[in-house]
Specification:
The protein has 230 residues and is mostly helical. Helices cover 69% and strands 0% of the residues. The longest helix has 23 residues. The radius of gyration is 21 Å and the shape is elongated.
Length: 230
């Protein structure tokens, strides 16, 4: 007789399954137990439940508490969520300086969404001095990881020459990359910048777009290969 081995679910998987099926009270209880035991993933999940008021009464103080504990253990998502709370001013006044600091922690740990938000804060001057060059570097990091918002924002910087040398060819490339993945705003930006460009420039930009698209895809398939280039 052939035996069938069933997958053994751990406590965190059980909590996740409870959350997925909508049993938020049970999920919150299980996440709380795991959080007390020091599980950083559970701490982030519990913070989110307090953040969103699912299975528990909404409490931004508790959300900040658990995000902070998880962040102290090196979790990358926790500082991103902390940055979002302080940027939005949920549970208290907006604090862009704190938001920028937390986004920087998350971005340094590899969180792409944090890099995008940090880039926007540098570009607009929220929470500190305006710095288009720094904004461009954070957008570049996220754009190279395939983030459409970062690609479109980087295209705008190249189009306007903010923080980088004005370069319509590179602007077109970044717009086209995001547009090719379904970003409607980037498609509009690509079409608008094409108007003053010579056919040879558009041809070059299209070739660069294809090369860059391959580089981004290759980065995900074979991470050891270099794919970050300006």
């Amino acid at each position: 007789m052939m035996a069938i081995e069933g997958a053994v679910s751990g406590p965190l998987e059980e909590a996740n399954m409870a959350y997925v099926r909508g049993d938020f009270v049970s999920a919150a209880h299980m996440y709380a137990e795991l959080s007390k035991q020091g599980d950083p993933t559970a701490q982030v999940k519990l913070g989110l439940m307090y953040d969103e008021g699912r299975g528990v009464h909404a409490s931004f103080d508790e959300a900040v508490r658990w995000y902070s504990v998880a962040s102290s253990q090196g979790n990358s998502l926790a500082p991103y969520y902390l940055g979002r709370i302080f940027q939005d001013g949920r549970g208290g006044p907006q604090n862009y300086a704190k938001a920028r600091r937390w986004y920087r922690v998350a971005a340094d740990r590899g969180e792409t969404k944090a890099a995008v938000n940090l880039g926007v804060m540098y570009a607009v001057g929220l929470g500190g001095p305006q710095n288009y060059q720094a904004a461009g570097l954070w957008f570049l990091l996220a754009a190279n990881r395939g983030d459409l918002i970062a690609q479109d924002n980087l295209g705008v910087l190249y189009q306007e020459g903010r923080g980088v040398l004005q370069n319509y060819t590179k602007a077109y490339m970044w717009f086209a990359l995001a547009a090719g993945a379904g970003d409607g705003m980037a498609a509009k930006h690509r079409d608008l910048i094409a108007n003053p460009m010579a056919p040879a420039q558009i041809e070059t930009a299209s070739r660069l777009t294809a090369q860059k698209m391959y580089a981004v895809i290759r980065c995900y398939i074979v991470p050891a290969l270099p794919c970050y280039w300006r």
